[in-house]
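ping. complex inputs:
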Amino acid sequence: MGYRALLGRLASAGIDFVVVGGVGAVLQGVPTTTFDLDIVHARDAENRRRLHDLLASLEARYRQHLPRILTPTLEDLDSDGHLLLVTSEGPLDVLGTVTGGRRYEDLVEHSTTMTLGGEHAFRVLDLETIIELEEKTGRARDLAQLPVLRETLGKKRSEEG
Amino acid sequence: MPPEPQEHESEDPGDSSLIDWMLSLTPEERLEVLDRNVADILELRRINGEEWATEHSSEG
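pong. complex structure:
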């Protein structure tokens, strides 16, 4: 159980997605902790089918309805909303859009590609855009993260010269 | 006179050194740090939850 395992499962299943939120920030060097993995997925039919199959194999169910077992449907994966799930590998938030109604296609150009162990490539939203989104949410917990996000970005830029 | 703070320098020097350390790791290593931290926090919660339940089980 863990983010590495969950990301590995998503990436090796050939699913198109962008990691956003806290895990995306950590991957880029932000010293923070988060308790769920947030992804924005491509919503074409083939990608939704792959994601749906993987979620089924991970025994994904909606965590706000526990202990009732309510599983996400293919139609659910075509919504703009946020599917807040728990899986056998930990909590997973599957987002149709993020702040400002931005979808996968809008985020790809603001993402970088990473791999796990040199294989299983996946996309991570760049730190500049993570900061931009967190500024816009206005949620207290997101705003509280901004100083360390900005400082990490500043240090990365200094390193990159 | 204290030195002028550098741009992006944290008010908390602990934050700054943690960022430097995280940036010295590979993305995969950062993920492993996160996985360990979360596992440790959940374990602490579990232990303390159990202790709390044990301490209060004889009450009421």
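Chain B has a mean pLDDT of 75.
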